[in-house]
Amino acid sequence: MTGRRSESAITRRLHRANGYWAHPRTNEEVRRRLNELRARLDPVRLLKEIRAVQQQLVAVADSPALSETAKPTSPTLEKFLSGLRTAWKEGEVRPTSAPKAKPKRLRRRPDPFAAVTTTLREWFKAEPWHTSREFLERLSMISVRH
After folding, report:
1. Residues with Cβ < 8 Å from 58, sequence gap 6 or more?
2. What total of structural domains would you count in the chain?
3. Looking at the domain assignment, is residue 6 inside a domain?
4. Is 34:20 a contact under the CB 8 Å cutoff?
5. CA–centroid distance for 119 within its chain
6. What pLDDT score was predicted for residue 125?
């Protein structure tokens, strides 16, 4: 629906602009200037000029520069375009495309063992043969009593 609205808006603007040419109170100088502007804004001619300039760019890109005759030449447009089929598999090559390093995520809730950390360390040093599960059971027995 948006495409239809914008299309009809463009059509309305063109009809309004055409109405200025046909209006009897529009003088000849304004009509002449509008016709010149309209001729310069021809989209078909613009597309033709864009394609011609693109062909010139391809010719310039394919021809070696005078100072670069001994250096290896860059690939031709055909080689470049044929490489695009598989280039996406190699990943992004621009250095600016690397994702920014995210800061390390900190704890979102308080440490449940903060109050008993020193006690647990003492137990681990004194009795290293016990498992952490045994220490946790001992800790839960102590906290139940308190």
Report:
1. 77
2. 1
3. yes
4. yes
5. 52
6. 93
pLDDT in tens, 99-109: 788 888 888 88
- Residues in the chain with pLDDT values less than 50: 1-4
Domain that holds residue 23: 1-41
CB–CB of 84/70 below 8 Å? no
Q: Is residue 135 part of a domain?
A: no
pLDDT of residue 1: 44
- Predicted pLDDT of residue 10: 60
Q: Cα 71 from chain centroid?
A: 34
The amino acid that residue 70 corresponds to is A
Give which of 84, 44, 78 is closest to 58, Cα–Cα. 78
User: Cβ atoms within 10 A of the Cβ of 139, count?
Assistant: 15
In this structure, is residue 109 part of a structural domain?
no
Q: Which pLDDT score is estimated for 111?
A: 86
Would residue 98 count as lying in a domain? Answer: no
C-alpha–C-alpha distance, residues 34 and 37, integer Å: 5
